Amino acid sequence: MSNAKPRQRGDFKPKLIALSVAACFSLSTAQSLANPTGGTVSSGSASFASSGNTLTITNSANAIINRDTTDYNFNFAVNPSFHLGNNVFSLSAGIQRTLRRDSQDPIHMNQNLFRQYVYLSTSSFYNWLSLKGYAIHESGPFTQSNLRSRDLAGALEFSVGRPWGKTALITGWGARDEQFSPLIREFYYTSTYAGIERQFSQNFHLRAVGEYLRSWRVEEQKFAIAQAFRPAANIDYRIGHNWDVEASFAYSRNMGFHLYDAVESGFSVSYAMPVGRTFEENGQKLPLRYPIRFSAGLQQETFFNFSGGNKSQQFRPFIRISLF
């Protein structure tokens, strides 16, 4: 008996199209919501002039300014399931508190956020169609200014194929809307995608999709629109009951201009170590297992058309520990 939550695949996440729409607001001198007050310039050149909560940045074309942000997350969730005829609906609903702190730009980055979320997955309807999705609301004030943000996100994915089959057609749609107040700032984008999932064996799984993204950004009386096409693939291979190897690749091609076209890839190796105990009910002893997963890997992204210096490629090693 186990309370392990199934791993979610294909979650809807922000993509590199945000860079394209943000680039439409590049100015030689800019005042905006979330720019470093004295950050480190890793590519190009930039100077900073602060007056109270107002920041003026003078930068060269294609400048890259570093930040150093740490998020501290605390969350609680319940995972009920219910039946409708022969179909099963599984939910994961909860709340999350995030304390965001930045050592280089505390005025524009330090924030206390409160999130409410719900995830849904179903069994197969009529042995053909299953779905999964989520809805998220997050908001909170900045700690060193009078600003606050509100973020809404949601997605729904359909899978068409026999539960016992090896191949399924997948398609989905998602959206995100982030606003800041009392300033007029908004970032909104949608994602539409379709592809296939292939189960070559019990241990070997492939997912490949083609994704079309549209993004809008508003600042006061200015606005910008960007589109991008993003093919991506993910391979997952399990070794025995405890080890898992995962690799991913994605190519982002912007429709308007190609300065921020990019290639992303990564891999990870994880090990699941169940911690067990015995639970006794009505005189019967039942074994319970609580999985703990250790993961490590490397991610990279390359902006092969970027002309802002030697920072067009980045590598990010990571270590993750998942409890229960």
List keywords for this structure.
324 residues, mainly beta, Porin, 3-stranded antiparallel beta sheet, 19 strands, globular
Report Rg. 22 Å
Protein structure class: mainly beta
Would you tell me the overall average pLDDT?
Answer: 82
List low-confidence stretches: 1-37
Number of strands: 19
Termini Cα gap? 13 Å
Notes on the protein architecture:
By secondary structure, this protein is mainly beta. It has one domain (about 70-324): Porin, CATH 2.40.160. About 5% of the residues lie in helices and about 65% in strands. The strands form 3 sheets. Strands 6, 7, 8, 9, 10, 11, 12, 13, 14, 15, 16, 17, 18 and 19 form a 14-stranded antiparallel sheet that branches. A hairpin with a 2-residue loop joins strand 3 (about 45-50) and strand 4. It starts with 16 loop residues before the first helix and ends with a strand. Residues about 1-35 have low confidence and may be disordered.
List the helices and strands and how they pair.
Layout: H1 17-23, E1 29-30, E2 41-43, E3 46-51, E4 54-59, E5 64-65, E6 69-78, E7 81-84, E8 87-102, H2 106-109, E9 111-122, E10 129-141, E11 148-160, E12 167-181, E13 185-199, E14 204-219, E15 222-239, E16 243-254, E17 262-281, E18 284-302, E19 313-323
Antiparallel strand pairs: 1-4, 2-5, 3-4, 6-8, 7-8, 8-9, 9-10, 10-11, 11-12, 12-13, 13-14, 14-15, 15-16, 16-17, 17-18, 18-19
